[in-house]
TrEMBL record:
Keywords of this entry: Heme, Iron, Metal-binding, Oxidoreductase, Signal
Localization per record: Cell envelope
Organism the protein comes from: Bradyrhizobium ontarionense
Name of the featured protein: C-type cytochrome
InterPro entries assigned to the protein according to its UniProt record, in alphabetical order: Cyt_c-like_dom, Cyt_c-like_dom_sf, Cytochrome_c_Peroxidase/MauG, Di-haem_cyt_c_peroxidsae
Domain Cytochrome c: 107-214, 233-329
Principal location class: other
Length: 329
């Protein structure tokens, strides 16, 4: 049946309902219910009302609306992209080297003392620095060719000097060939002890140690080399001879009592002028240990000076006084 044919039927049905509505129009209960429920006429009108025809919605829009609706229902938060900085694989170039911590002077000197007594510094593993200088850095009063002990006075021998006060000296070695303490120690290890080339750290530690070896103090001599008030009369007279007729101060200059240059005093070549501090305990004397006593060494030097300067020779009393002063240094 078409919509035109249904129109009279709907109109008749609507007229039939009017009496019932009028009968109950006075009741409040009906008015409230009627306000809440649709009328029969409204129901029929909605049933026969043609639906509007819409164009087909694109599929992609339906999908988008569906996804958005689902997201609202689930309250899904949008994903946040998380990025991490790339981590490069570790690269090792050669062996890892950790520089040694800087040592204090005291710690470096303590390490030097250990090395000073270490026989591995020598080629045969039988000798250390302390073999000739003991652990106190003094001298063992022997003459050597290499590491072999020879008779004092051997022209090839070298008498072991004390290391006390070595940090105050100008040049090093009997030949004065070493301009620095480092060069001197290296030369002893490599040439005399026939040991391997020492590392820089080894030399630094040994230098730090030997620089702590100071001269013993003398109650008769001041730091500048002059006699103290309480010095003996012989020491005071000897001091005058040292700077005067004895000529000692020409080479053994105050206050260090040595000199940078090398001199030939008729003992077989040019040798460094040794320091005279603590000389009383360093016998034998000269580079080859040719003189056993300090007095004989003083006599030899005065006689050499007198010959060179064409001056007088000493008396026995003057030798005693000069020896007293030099022995008090």
């Amino acid at each position: 049946m078409s919509f035109t044919g249904l129109r009279p039927v709907i109109l008749c049905l609507g007229l039939l309902t009017l009496p019932a509505l009028a009968a109950d129009k006075s009741t409040a209960t009906y008015r409230a219910a009627a306000a809440e429920r649709p009328t029969l006429l409204q129901i029929f009108a909605a049933a026969i009302k043609p639906k509007p025809v819409h164009a087909a919605e694109p599929a992609h829009r339906r999908r988008v609306r569906h996804v958005a609706s689902a997201a609202r229902k689930r309250k899904v938060r949008p994903a946040v992209a998380v990025t991490h900085a790339p981590v490069a694989p570790p690269t090792t170039v050669g062996a890892a080297v950790t520089p040694p911590a800087q040592l204090s002077e005291a710690d470096l000197a303590a390490k030097g003392l250990e090395l000073f007594n270490d026989v591995s510094l020598s080629g045969g593993g039988k000798a250390s620095c302390a073999t000739c200088h003991f652990s106190t850095g003094h001298t063992n009063n022997k003459t050597y060719v290499g590491l072999d002990v020879v008779a004092d006075g051997d022209p090839n021998g070298r008498n072991t000097p004390t290391l006390w006060g070595v940090g105050e000296r100008a040049v090093f070695g009997w030949a004065g060939q070493a301009p620095t303490l480092e060069d001197s120690i290296r030369g002893i290890i490599v040439n005399r002890m026939k040991g391997p080339e020492p590392a820089k750290e080894t030399l630094a530690a040994l230098v730090a140690y030997v620089r702590t070896l100071n001269y013993p103090t003398s109650w008769q001599i001041k730091e500048d080399g002059t006699p103290t008030v309480n010095a003996s009369a012989a020491v005071k007279r000897g001091y005058d001879l040292y700077l005067g007729d004895g000529g000692c101060g020409t080479c053994h200059q105050l206050p260090s009592f040595d000199k940078k240059s090398r001199d030939d005093i008729g003992t077989g070549g040019k040798f460094k002028v040794p320091a005279l501090h603590a000389v009383a305990s360093t016998a034998p004397y000269f580079h080859d240990g040719r003189t056993a006593s300090l007095r004989d060494a003083v006599k030899l030097m005065w006689e050499f000076y007198a010959k060179k300067m064409e001056s007088r020779l000493p008396t026995d009393a003057e030798l005693d006084d000069l020896t007293a002063y030099v022995g008090a240094l």
